[in-house]
Each structure stands twice: as structure tokens, then as C-alpha cells.
């Protein structure tokens, strides 16, 4: 999973794999994919109502389909990602520098993730 992380000094794009990504999002990739593939209510420009498992990417190729949620109903996939946004974590990262087409790039990979213990962090 590629994420943008920020702090007071700036921002960076980091890659996190399996266990680290699960800690950040709060569920496994399989569970997240299942949420993304949930059955939703869709209809075409005609009168048909379809109950199909549709991936969001597929909707961009089907412009005549419209998907709506009932009032108060939320998209579980988007809600799960929204819950993981702006949550403070303490990251340990590995930074490597690669060169591609004579352009140097930094690759930042998360090696450890932990929730911030504010009491511990405030002691000097």
C-alpha cells in the first residue's frame, strides 16, 4: 500500500506491506477487497434495477450505470479508508535511493508501525 504521510516538517510517500498496512488500515487486504466488491444497488438509464457485485473500476467503463446508496447508507470500503485517514502513528522507515533514467529517486518503506503513546513521547 502506498500512502502519503505528513508531519510538521513535510510529507512523503511511503510503501507499506502486509502486517504494517493491516495495522494502518485496520483490516487485511482480503477483507478490504471484499468490502470493495460488496453488492450495491445499481440501475441503468432504463428502469432495470440490478443487484450485482461491481468493482468501482468497472463503473468507469459503464457510463450508463448509476449507483446510489439509500439515505444514511455508506460505502463500507470508503468508510474503512476514511477511518484510517489522519490517524497519528509512529513509523520506522527504511530509505533507499535508486536511479532510473539518470534520475535519482528515494524509495521509503515502512519497517514498523505503532500507535503513538503520547505519555511516553512527552517524557525527556
Keywords:
27% helix; 3-stranded antiparallel β-sheet; two-stranded antiparallel ribbon; single chain; 124 residues; 5 helices; alpha+beta
How would you briefly describe this protein structure?
The chain is of the alpha+beta class. The protein contains five helices and seven strands. Helix 2 (29-36) crosses helix 4.
Helix run count: 5
Largest sheet: 3 strands, antiparallel
Q: Total number of β-strand segments?
A: 7
Note the run of SSEs as H and E: EEHHEEHEHEEH
Low-confidence region ranges: 44-66
The residue-averaged pLDDT reads: 78
Overall 3D shape: globular
How helix-rich are the residues, as a percent range? 25-40%
Structural Rg: 20 Å
Strand content: 35-45%
Which oligomeric state applies? single chain
Gap between N and C termini, in Å?
A: 34 Å
- Provide the structure class: alpha+beta
Spatial strand order of the main sheet: 4-3-5
Amino acid at each position: 500500500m502506498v500512502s502519503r504521510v505528513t508531519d510538521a516538517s513535510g510529507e512523503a510517500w511511503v510503501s507499506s506491506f502486509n502486517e504494517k498496512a493491516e495495522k494502518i488500515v485496520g483490516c487485511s487486504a482480503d477483507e478490504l477487497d471484499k468490502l470493495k466488491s460488496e453488492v450495491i444497488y445499481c440501475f441503468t438509464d432504463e428502469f432495470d434495477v440490478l443487484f450485482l457485485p461491481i468493482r468501482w473500476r468497472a463503473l468507469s467503463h459503464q457510463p450508463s450505470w448509476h449507483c446510489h446508496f439509500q439515505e444514511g447508507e455508506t460505502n463500507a470500503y470508503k468508510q474503512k479508508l476514511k477511518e484510517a485517514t489522519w490517524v497519528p502513528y509512529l513509523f520506522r522507515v527504511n530509505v533507499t535511493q535508486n536511479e532510473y533514467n539518470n534520475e535519482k529517486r528515494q524509495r521509503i518503506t515502512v519497517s514498523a508501525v505503532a500507535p503513538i503513546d503520547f505519555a511516553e513521547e512527552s517524557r525527556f
